[in-house]
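hi support,

uploading two proteins for the ticket. first:
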Amino acid sequence: MSITVISGAVELGLIFAILAMGIYISFRILDTPDLTVDGTFTLGVAVSSIFTVNGHPFIGIILSFFAGFLAGTATGLLHTKMKIQPILSGILVMTALYSINMHVMGKKPNISLFDTDTIFTGIRSSLNKNAANLIVCGIIALIVFGLLYLFLNTQLGMSLRATGDNEAMVRASSIDSDKMKILGLGAANSLVALSGAVYAQYSGFGDANGGIGMLVIGLASIIIGELIFGRRSVLRGMLSAVAGAILYRFVLTIALKLGMESIDLKLFSALIVTAATAIPAIKHYGEKRKALKCAE
């Protein structure tokens, strides 16, 4: 593979590492299946695109973060206050976000950002495109990683982690677990939207259907990383999510180089998640058969 191809895989890996860290909060820390992700990723794309077209790319990035937080909060409120199952809550918000995203984008299915100033424009004037993209994506991913790690080690962050580990114990400790869930889902979706915002400016266009399959991509990144690095601590879990996102992009790049069609990438992603998730069951089955043979 050429340097350009490798650089592109790392750049996309860093962007989707932000997505993976968001999904890590909901699926690993809160232990809550949140299907809002596909909608909030597109929400980030929509907000970022519309502000970039109007000459405010950095404001678009910031507002995408807060828009994602509001979307995640809506899911949390439906789940905790309306007593709707988390999966259904996510589906409801995700469905509503499709219409909201279309309105944000001015009822256009896509927005072109070519020949428009983005967060990458300034540094691209000083360095070549690949180096500039890598630096910007790396800085954003590093900032998100550092702030998230610091937050999860504050008293509020530890309360959030405790809610996912043992909600009954948290309630007994006079901590409002509902507020923790709302906060966690808000934080998770804010990072997902941020990932979408950066991706839109990186790719040069905003697509109203760009979020389809992002949940699977995030899960694939987390699972691949955990298979290699484990998740015994929060730090290791976060590092696994970041490393898994980059490795996942390399796997896709290699698959495309070997002749896989781009329309098959979603199927390939689903198969990766299925295979990785099934590994513990396969191991258990193998150990069981081995024990039966020894007993004979």
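and the second one:
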Amino acid sequence: MGHGIERKLNTASKLAGYFLLVLLAAAMGCRPADSTREYRFQGSSMGTTFEVKVVASPFPEQQQEAVREAIQAQLQEVDGKMSTYRDASEISRLNRSRETTPQPLSRETFTVLAEALRISRVTGGAFDITVGPLVNAWGFGPAPDPSSLPTAAEIEQLKLRSGWSKIELNPRDSTVLKHEPALYLDLSAIAKGYAVDRLSEVLAGMSLTRHMVELGGEVRTSGRNAGGNPWRIAIEKPVSGGRAFQRILPLENLALATSGDYRNFRQAEDGHLSHTIDPRTGRPVRHELASVSVVAASCMRADGYATALMVLGEDEGYRLAVEQDLAALFLVRTREGSFRETETPAFRRLFGTKPTGAGPETTGESGS
């Protein structure tokens, strides 16, 4: 994830900045300093990094420590329930089970599963949390890298043991039933978004209503930044050789998630293999859509839809996004080697023309 814009300043610009600060200080005179400021919390969890910014006044060290502990506790809880990389997680135990009777789920895991299945229905299976075995077969999951790519016959066999419609949830009892004993669930395309939502809710519960939460490129904002303006969140330019920004969005009480094929991929004899697997074909997607970003009130929802639209591609994905009134930005590769932007009407209603100005506070990169 990009955490800002590195700038190389020459001596003259440094001096100019210094004199500007002196002039501003003189102009302020004896006005009392505004004690409102931004506090930053960073670390790693869920196989990625996180950054949380909180605007507060006052904010004593004891409260800051409470925030640190709350962040770590919440991330550990989500990871401990939903990570396929943890053998003792709730989802791993469910994957090992061959029972075809209802099994109890925690409220958190049930919430994520319910939203995942809703998006699966809406997208006609373009989003499917049972695609894990196919992800593993192509070398993008927690299993060791395969010695060879799957054959057509192997793909068809794996598809028989997957399918979101083979999951049945009972909201009354908070249980899940697998109609296929070997069904393997992978929440990686939606769990980070849920974790971001939970962190935002925890901070709000601590009366910290001005904050920005970022986890693995998925972002949610609340209130305004320390300057009293909307948070400035960058969408990465989908290039693998470095970091650059395509758009900077002013977000206030909104979440952003991006899915793309430019960070996590493999090379095969027939070219570039995206880590995004189309559950309907069992194969990596092959189209000119480089990334898609979705803005929504919920980061979990934005996360799931971004993955689904990336699977669908520009044309089919755009039609679905318009149908669902999603605020989405599609970045499509052109023959000239650049990127063409396609915005949905909901995206244009939110942001209008391209914002300009200072650099971003964080980057919503391709996280799934």
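thanks. also noticed: The first strand starts at residue 37 and ends at 45.
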